[in-house]
Amino acid sequence: MKKPQNDFHGLLHSADLVEAELRRRLAPLSILPRQARILEAMGRIGPVSQSDLASAFRVSSASMSTMTDRLLAAGYITRRVDPTSRRRHVLELTEKGQVLLTGIIEAWETVDETIRQALGPNAEPFFEMARQLRDSLGGTIPGAQPAEPDAEG
């Protein structure tokens, strides 16, 4: 009998379902998951150039420009000339953006809890394996510092 699906199919389908749940949780905030990720990264990074943000998210400058223009129009971020280089612009969260970020974090925590309830005692190993998969496929957390290697290893 032929195997009905590839092994990764369950992961792919689960990711779609988790993203749909996240969209549902973010809807009252009028923000999309990718915009939420950008705001969260800016909250951790602090003032950042649009090109550095595009590099951190591995997207084109044009794509990042479209996303940040929407966040600027909504009043969640500001753009100003970089005092160290007049040719660069720096993006920064506004107070309104910081308030929204609190709601974003709450939505993410709710989705985390949904996953924990679904997986029970397997949730923490699942989250660890998800991070391991992300890392081994070359994924990074935008703005996060690389982990320091162990002195012994």
Radius of gyration: 18 Å
What's the helical proportion of residues? 55-70%
Say how many strands there are.
3
Strand order of the largest sheet: 1-3-2
Shape: globular
Blueprint (SSEs and pairs):
Elements: H1 9-26, H2 33-45, E1 48-49, H3 50-57, H4 61-73, E2 77-82, E3 85-93, H5 95-119, H6 123-136
Antiparallel strand pairs: 1-3, 2-3
Helix pairs in contact: 1-5, 2-5, 3-4
Q: How would you describe this protein?
A:
The structure is a single chain. By secondary structure, this protein is mainly alpha-helical. Helices cover 59% and strands 11% of the residues. The chain is built from six helices and three strands, in the order ααβααββαα. The protein has a three-stranded antiparallel β-sheet. Strand 2 and strand 3 form a beta hairpin. Helix 1 crosses helix 5, helix 2 packs across helix 5 and helix 3 packs across helix 4. The relative contact order is 0.12.
